[in-house]
Amino acid sequence: MMEGVAFPSVTCKAPVNIAVIKYWGKRDTELVLPLNSSISFTLRTDHLCATTTAAASPTFKEDQLWLNGEKIGKTRLHACLKEIRRRARKRKSDNDKDDNVSEMLNWNVHICSKNNFPTAAGLASSAAGYACLAYSLAKLFKIEGNISDIARLGSGSASRSVFGGAVVWDMGSDSNGSDSIARQIYPHTHWPELRVVILVVSDQQKSISSFSGMQCSVETSELLQYRIKQCVPARLDALIKAIGEKDFETFAINTMKENNQFHAVCLDTYPPISYLNDTSHAIQQLAHSFNEHFKCAKVAYTFDAGPNATLYMLEDTVDLFINVVQHYFPPEVNMNEGPFVKGLPVNDIDSIDECLLEFHSVPRKPGAIKYIISTSIGSGPEVVTDPNESLLGEDGFPKDLKCSS
Ligand code: DP6
Q1: Which of 119, 164, 180, 402 has the fewest beta carbons closer than 10 A?
Q2: Which pLDDT tens digit goes with each residue over 364-380?
Q3: Which helix (H) or strand (E) holds 183?
Q4: Is the domain of 150 the same as that of 295?
């Protein structure tokens, strides 16, 4: 609990995760139960994260949530809160511990959340946001154990962000969702050479949300039915094995094939959904040309429900790959949005093999990439102990009225 405020309050940070087997399709929209299991890596919180302060007080008139400055509707928050309170009540009756929690159960909560990256970038913000919400509320109400199912009620992919490292979200089979939970398969220390490069692509288009997009795919795509039965189970095994053995080649090929199938399902949806734009396709082409040049898979791309690319690669490839990316997609002179490459330091390479700069199949597109984030695998959500970082003021309302990032 934070010192210096008159009511119990907790602030936490939670990370983004990027799936290598995508969750796409629900069998139950209310409980957020998926039609297939998925795997992801959780990224470091210092480069990309959501921060949330959750507080409870008898003076709060209603449960309220502010997300990136906006007061938002309560449907999904409500589902998470209901489950938090149910578990807190159960825990109390199981242990009969009295630590304020029984009193707090009668109070309303205020929750304020923000991202340290632009939400417009479409970088799995709901995953980090709802994982942070579930984690903060669990800390506030002293709930222990696996809380991935609470995060899941906010947003499916958030279930995986409550753990660090490599994470599997098992689809489960119970109709009440009791076995649809995420688990860590490897900690962030398992594959320290693995790195992540995110290419934030300029995009003015507003695309269809994951929620509606996947629902439409479930209703109309025959390929989705084939994928979940015939392809995902075997690929899941192959990827878990490849990650376990740190076999980058197998990992990369499966990640890219899975990504392509996921976007094929989007195109097979009626009306079709296309999350990728010309720059995304050019990045895909660059990755394949780069891999062909080295005669092995050096980089693996994956795209979520938007045009931004996430590339997995090993540490020894990062400098060269980012230098090559900057050749094909140099920043526009007037972009003026801070450094072009953010996150972990990247070294300039003076002498790049000319062949890498002359791929005929890759168009040169200045300004097509807004910026690059170079990062790695992280250890999961954490509690913030500095009271100055609380997003709620002493009155229990957002410190910065707009509460913007
Ligand atoms: C393409 O978790 O955002 O990123 O459960 O409806 O909130 P809801 O969907 P969401 O979908 C994520 C889709 C994805 C794939 C993935 O992260 O697994």
Answers
A1: 402
A2: 999 999 999 999 999 99
A3: strand 182-186
A4: no
223: domain range? 194-376
Whether residue 390 sits in one domain with residue 341: no
SS (H, E, C) 294-356: HCCCCEEEECCCCCCEEEEEEHHHHHHHHHHHHHHCCCCCCCCCCCCEEECCCCCCCCCCHHH
CA 24 to centroid of ligand 1, rounded, Å: 7
Distance 228 CA to ligand 1 centre (A): 15
Residue 158 CA, closest ligand 1 atom number? 2
* The two three-digit tokens of residue 89, written as one number: 């009540």
How confident is the model over 328-368, as pLDDT tens digits? 999 987 656 689 999 999 999 999 999 999 999 999 999 99
Query: Ligand 1: which of 23, 27, 39, 274 to mutate, most ligand atoms within 8 Å of CB?
Result: 23
pLDDT, position 402: 55
User: Are residues 64 and 144 both part of a single domain?
Assistant: yes
Whether residues 19 and 159 share a domain: the answer is: yes
DSSP per position, 359-392: -TTS---TTSEEEEEEEEB----EEE--GGG-SB
Q: Are both 156 and 203 inside the same structural domain?
A: no
76 CA: nearest ligand 1 atom: 7
Give kind and range of the element (H or E) at residue 198: strand 194-201
Residue pointed to by tokens 């007080």: 57
Q: In the block, which residue shows the tokens 């700069």?
A: 357
CB within 6 Å of ligand 1 — which residues? 19, 22-23, 32, 38, 126, 155-157, 210-211, 304-305
Say yes or no: 147 and 234 in one domain.
Answer: no
pLDDT in tens, 162-199: 999 999 999 999 999 999 999 999 999 999 999 999 99
Residue 4 forms part of a structural domain = no
Q: How many domains does the chain contain in total? A: 2
